[in-house]
Amino acid sequence: MLIVCGELKFLDEYRDVLTNPTVIIEILSQRTEEFDRELKFWRYQTWNPTLNDYLLIAQTRPVIEHYIRQEDGGWSYYVYLGLESSLTIKSVNCTLHLADVYDRMVFPPQNLELFSETEGEEL
Question: CA geometry: angle at 70 spanning 11 and 63, to 5°?
Answer without folding.
Answer: 85
